[in-house]
Amino acid sequence: MLDRLDHSGSSELPASSRANLGEELTIGGVATSRLAAFGDVQLPKVSFIVRNWNYGRYIGRTIDSIRAQDYPNFEVVIVDNASTDESHEVIEKHVAADPRFRVIHSDVNLGPLGGALRGLELATGDFVTFVDSDDTLLSNFASVHIQAHLASRLNVVFTSSSTLETGPDGAIVNGRRNTAGTRPEVTSVGLRPAEIVPRLRSIDDETYEVLHRNTRLLQPVPMEWPWSPGTANMYRRFILTMLAPACQACDLPKLSADGHYNRLAHLLGGSMVIDLPLSTYRIHGSNFAASTPSLAHLGSDAGPATQYKSIRMREGVRVLVANAADFSVRIGEKRYWNALAALFQWGGLATARDLADWNRDQFFNEQVRQLAATFGERRAIRKLATFIPKPLLREGVEALHGGKWPVHAHIELHLSAPRRLHARIKRAIGKRRRMLPSHVS
């Protein structure tokens, strides 16, 4: 029944079900079907994109957990990355004839991010969650995420919920996955008042109050990783298109969806953390992201993805630079350069090896060319000089001019060290001010 792409059923809901979607929302306790013209206000569609590679032992539970969602308007795209185990048979059995599911069997392993992008080509939802095929969703996953989006005091580009860590057999090993903390000054708690927001029928007053107390709105500034991995994230569809990767095909299998999108999306439009467990994250030896449980005082992840950090940061820089003209207008030039600096610093700028990695295959030189074309050479070099070490910046300027440097290039490079020192002092002063109690001037 399931060949390369199953068209046996439409992903659209029946007409009767579509009509009922308006009854699933209320404002001030009144159904939106009574407040607007018929069909004008309906629940947004959620697209679950499941990526699988030889996880036949797990994916059946993943599919069942999606089918059990209490949220009525969703579709599922399953991308099987050339599995050689029993995945094909397990997927066929658990999908059965459910018209909300579409299945793609790829001839090659596209990797976590490549599979996500392939599924995104077919997805039609307003919101998207990339589901790892060894994870499961709690039945209220979609409804709580959508309610958080609809009730947020500021519209954000993605939400990230807590997740239960389980072992290979599904037994819980941690009540939540450890993530880095966030600075209080860039975090605010809570949603808008319940009586003025669109409310899902499945979110009663008590549930809304719990959600209100356990959400944190994160301002779009550089920070460590405060989000849960993989399956726990729900994105607005447009941001995924806006931040699409452009790396070579050989690097795509080394990247993950959350690793590529979360930092970039947050730096552009902010995010929200829902500190409620809405999914499970399975820890096992072949997990791409983590093979050991997260412990507060014992390092972090140990999965295969950790070795690809520099590639991940390079791809983030590539996307920011390629869209410099657009993004610097959307978020302002100051925020744009702060975001670019953060990606370079997360990728490492401390050692000669770091600098060599940034300019592998002339990568940094190409970014300098594009930034100079967008902002003008003087401004680009001046901005880069506040966070790029002089040896690497010299390579970029050399690539622009070869052996015939104009006077202004010599001046900008000469002033790069004091400008970088000045920028560090400003950051240190700002950090100290943020740490002071609010009553201290």
TrEMBL record:
The organism's taxonomic lineage, starting at the top: Bacteria, Pseudomonadati, Pseudomonadota, Alphaproteobacteria, Hyphomicrobiales
Classification via PANTHER family: GLYCOSYLTRANSFERASE
Annotated organism of origin: Kaistia defluvii
A Pfam family reported for this protein in Swiss-Prot or TrEMBL: Glycos_transf_2
Protein name: Glycosyltransferase 2-like domain-containing protein
The Glycosyltransferase 2-like domain, residue ranges: 47-157
